[in-house]
Amino acid sequence: MPVSTAQHGQPQWRLRTTRAQWLQYLAWLAGVSLFLLCWKLISDNTMWVFVEDAGRQGADLISRMTPPEWSYASQLWKPMWDTLNIATLGTALGIMLAFPVAFLAARNTSPHPLVRSAALVIIVSSRSINSLIWAMLLVTILGPGVLAGIIAIALRSIGFVGKLLYEAIEEIHPTPVEAISATGASRLQVMSYGVLPQVMPAFAGISVYRWDINIRESTVLGLVGAGGIGLQLNASINTLAWDHVSVIFLMIFATVLVSEWVSAKVRHAII
Amino acid sequence: MSTMSSKQRQHLAQQGTWRRLPLIASPGLRWGLVLALAVYLVLAFASVEVNWARVAEGASRGMNFLSAFMQPDFVSRWDDILAGLLESLTMTVTSTVLGIALAVPVGLGAARNIAPLPIYVICRSIIAVSRTFQEVIIAILFVVMFGFGPFAGMITLAFATIGFMAKLLAEDIEDLDWRQVEAVRATGAGWWQTLNHAVQPQVMPRLIGLSMYRLDINFRESAVIGIVGAGGIGATLNTSISRYEYDTSAAILLMIIAIVLLSEYSSSHVRRWTQ
């Protein structure tokens, strides 16, 4: 407890020691200066005339977006179905690939430290690169279409599912594993009867959670040509058809809300 | 639970015909899900059109990309890469700070146990809107409003940060230890004092951890919103890919991965230090 003594010998309670106080002050000073420096760099690169104009532009945008042209919605069912397929098939492919990677990356199931670091590298690189970037690359390689979107989503999901799953595997209870190995089970049998049942609920929860995120991400993949509703969005924005854009936005909003609800329900049922 | 009693299961085990418990206990639901999944997969695969000729054509380009990854070119576009990275990093810092500063009041308002109902509803709808739309979609709107450049990107990331941080902060406040709040209230503390001495100490470690995590996410997102004109390394990356300069794209991707690794490593240190 940091205490200082007053002049007449009475102890006084203080929140921090002098050292902690100074450290905190310095940390704040460094943080605020960094923020101001970054702010200055951004402000130098900004056309402030445009920013001052933003309110008017925003109002103009809203007036162009309303009323939404509802009849356009009938053309959106096919792209929306494509978007759902990109998200779902991409998640399925992603978790299939992530499952073995997670077992190789978990400290207690990995066969060798070298294999473990290789698996961790896969997880980190997949996590660092956004699915839109993957899609951009894959569109130049595979050509525009749903397939590029599916693979992009899958590649991005490996890292997410792999990371959460390997953390779940590292947190399992060792007792069932020991019990199974005591019966003379082989390595794979221990995995299947000792480890797997313990991580299965977590795995199902993580997968559904990632599916929900992927629905959100797959709505924009079309911007770079990877299929789905993003293609329509891109086309509408390029032709300045803002009343179509607002229909697409509402559709995305509804789909994401529904998928979030489904995923929350399923995760609630699992846990 | 299982349709079989544990006694029956034990009996079966003694006969050597034991089977493990299925993940989904009710057989109707289990087979129903399998059937639904099968029907969906058939429908989905039927509607996915793949131009295999185009895929085969692109295979050589894929090989080009892989070989470029083996020998990334940092040098020839170094100035562009540096400018893009600097812009991304400044965008990340400012947007995270702004976003968190705005997320704290929204998060307080979205916690049902300390906010009155009307404020709760308003704050929850802000969170819902901010979380539903992908950063890229928000960026499109802000680029139209604020013009091209990092300012629009910063606003976008700050807006996305609000939804993320406020939701998690509100959840954290909703399950805090209420006894401490009562203790502080019993001393006659007002609303602000309760917040400062009972709520804040309980949520602070997690708030700092989440902020570090969000810093990380914002950097990763800043690499993509450049595609729609909101500044940052994404614009550079987009240009390099569309010009088929894969060695430069590989260099940019490697630098993104390195920075994310670095920030993940340091954020785990910060988190250990605060908890």
From TrEMBL, chain A:
It is a multi-pass membrane protein. The gene is phnE. InterPro entries: MetI-like, MetI-like_sf, PhnE/PtxC. Keywords: Cell membrane, Membrane, Transmembrane, Transmembrane helix, Transport. The lineage of its organism: Bacteria, Pseudomonadati, Pseudomonadota, Gammaproteobacteria, Oceanospirillales. Belongs to the binding-protein-dependent transport system permease family. Residues 80-263 form the ABC transmembrane type-1 domain. The chain crosses the membrane at residues 22-42, 86-106, 132-155, 247-264. This is Phosphonate ABC transporter, permease protein PhnE. It comes from Halomonas llamarensis. It is found in: Cell membrane. PANTHER family: ABC TRANSPORT SYSTEM PERMEASE PROTEIN P69, PHOSPHONATES TRANSPORT SYSTEM PERMEASE PROTEIN. It holds the Pfam family BPD_transp_1. It comes from the Bacteria.
